[in-house]
Design goal:
The chain has 414 residues and is of the alpha/beta class. Helix content is 29%, strand content 17%. Strand 1 and strand 2 form a beta hairpin.
Length: 414
C-alpha cells in the first residue's frame, strides 16, 4: 500500500483549523453561502412527515486505529493501535448489545477503514468483530494532502484495498451474479473529487474512478463545519447529473424518487445538515448540526428531532426517513460520544422510546441503507427492514475471481 497521507484539519463537527488559526469570517461566510439558500428553500418547502415513520439509522465511522488527533501526519504506535482496536471489539458488544431495533438488530457501525493505513492483522480482527454482527467494513481514503494525487494512483489504491478486503477478509458485497466486489466510500479529507479548492485530493475525476471500481454509494457529506469542500446540495439522496469526470461532479444531482430506479452510481447518501436555534452550548444561540458524533456534541434526543426534520428520504416515500451519522470511533477525544455513557444513553432512549414517538427503528449498515433506498426507488412497500439485502448482498459468491472483472459491469455516466 502507499505511504501514509495526512488527514484534513478539523474533525467532523469541530471547527476547522488552518496554519493561520481559526477559520475567519470570510471563510465562514463562504461556507454558509454555499448551502444556506438551499437550506432555507428546503425549510419553506418542507412537508410534515407522517405521524408514524420508519427511521433507518446508519453510522459511517471514519475508523482509524492509528489516529493522532493533534497531528494528522503522525500515527499512534502499533501496540496502541492494537490496544484501541481490541478494546473496541471487546467493549462494544457489552455496552450496546442490549438495545435492539424493530427486527432485533443491534446498533452497528460501518467501519470505513483507511486504504492507505491497511494492516492485515488489524483488519482481520475488525472483520472478526463484524462477523459477530456488529457492523461491516467499507473503504475510506485520505490522499493528496502533501501534493495532489493522480488518477492512476487513486485507482490503484482503491482496487488494491478493495480486493484485499474482499479476497483476504471476506468483506464487501456483490450485485446479482457479478463477481466484482462493490463498496461504500467516504473521502477522508471530505475533498471528494477535488472539491476542496484543489487541496487534499487532486483528482477531478475521482467519482468516475469510484464508479469504475465498484463503488455503490458515497457517504462523505456533510463536511466538518466551515470546511471548504462543502457543496450546496444538502439533506439529499441523489445520483449525479453532471459528467462524472468533472471536478466536484456531486455538486449537482437528481433526487431519488419512488418508481424511478437510479441509473448512475455511486449514489450519494448525505447526513443531516441543520441549523439548531435551541442548542444548549453555552452562550451560543445558533449551532450548525452536521450529524457528527463528537466529544463536544454527542447524540441526544434533541439532535434526533433535528435529524428527523431534515426529512432525508426517497421522494414519494416520506415515511421512510434515512439518518446517516458520522464519527471517528478511534479518536480518544470522542470516546464518550462513541463508546461511552453518552452514546449508551442515546441508544437506550432511542430504542425504548421509539413506540411512544411513533417510530419504527431500523439499525443498518451503509450497504443495508443503500439496499433499502433502492427498494424504495423500486416502489416496494411494507417494512423497510425486509430489504437489507435487496440488491447488494454478502458473502462473496464462489464464482469467478474479481480480478477478471472489468469496469464495464458498473453503471456509469461520463
Amino acid at each position: 500500500m502507499t505511504k501514509p497521507t495526512q488527514r484534513s484539519g478539523g474533525q467532523p463537527g469541530e471547527r476547522v483549523r488552518t496554519g493561520r488559526g481559526s477559520v475567519g469570517p470570510k471563510q465562514k461566510l463562504s461556507y454558509m453561502s454555499r448551502w444556506l439558500p438551499g437550506y432555507l428553500w428546503q425549510r419553506l418547502a418542507h412537508h410534515r412527515a407522517p405521524s408514524r415513520t420508519h427511521l433507518v439509522f446508519a453510522l459511517a465511522d471514519h475508523f482509524e486505529p492509528a489516529i493522532v488527533p493533534e497531528d494528522g501526519a503522525a500515527r499512534a504506535p502499533y501496540a496502541e493501535q492494537q490496544r484501541r482496536l481490541e478494546r473496541w471489539c471487546r467493549e462494544y458488544p457489552n455496552r450496546f448489545g442490549s438495545y435492539r431495533d424493530a427486527e432485533g438488530h443491534p446498533f452497528v457501525h460501518t467501519y470505513f477503514y483507511p486504504a492507505e493505513q491497511y494492516d492485515q492483522p488489524l483488519v482481520a480482527r475488525l472483520a472478526e468483530h463484524c462477523l459477530g454482527g456488529w457492523g461491516e467494513i467499507e473503504i475510506h481514503l485520505h490522499h493528496g494532502a502533501e501534493a495532489p494525487d493522480s488518477a492512476e494512483n487513486t485507482r490503484r489504491q482503491l482496487i488494491e484495498f478493495r480486493d484485499r478486503l474482499a479476497g483476504e477478509h471476506g468483506c464487501l458485497s456483490y450485485w446479482g451474479e457479478s463477481a466484482q466486489p462493490r463498496y461504500g466510500f467516504v473521502h477522508g479529507n471530505f475533498a471528494l473529487a477535488n472539491s476542496n479548492q484543489g487541496r487534499q485530493c487532486g483528482v477531478d475525476n475521482e467519482i468516475q474512478i469510484l464508479a469504475e471500481t465498484g463503488c455503490y454509494g458515497d457517504m462523505t457529506l456533510p463536511t466538518a463545519s466551515f470546511h471548504a469542500a462543502q457543496i450546496g446540495k444538502i439533506n439529499s439522496i441523489y445520483e449525479c447529473t453532471l459528467p462524472l469526470v468533472e471536478q466536484a461532479a456531486h455538486r449537482r444531482g437528481r433526487d431519488l424518487e419512488r418508481g424511478r430506479p437510479p441509473q448512475v452510481f455511486p449514489l450519494f447518501v448525505q447526513g443531516p445538515l441543520m441549523l439548531d436555534f435551541n442548542a444548549s452550548r453555552g452562550s451560543r444561540r445558533l449551532h450548525i448540526d452536521n450529524a457528527a458524533l463528537t466529544g463536544a456534541n454527542p447524540a441526544s434526543l434533541h439532535r434526533l428531532s433535528l435529524w428527523k426534520r431534515a426529512g432525508i428520504s426517497v421522494k414519494g416515500r416520506p415515511d421512510w426517513l434515512f439518518i446517516k451519522l458520522h464519527c471517528h470511533g478511534m479518536d480518544p477525544g470522542h470516546e464518550e460520544a462513541n463508546l461511552g455513557s453518552a452514546m449508551q444513553k442515546f441508544v437506550r432512549e432511542l430504542a425504548t422510546g421509539a413506540e411512544e414517538r411513533n417510530e419504527v427503528l431500523h439499525f443498518v449498515s451503509a450497504r443495508e441503507m443503500v439496499n433499502i433506498i433502492l427498494a424504495a426507488c423500486d416502489g416496494k412497500e411494507g417494512n423497510p427492514g425486509e430489504y437489507r439485502d435487496y440488491q447488494l448482498r454478502r458473502p462473496r459468491p464462489s464464482s469467478a475471481s474479481s480480478s477478471h472483472v472489468g469496469a464495464s459491469e458498473v453503471i456509469v455516466k461520463g
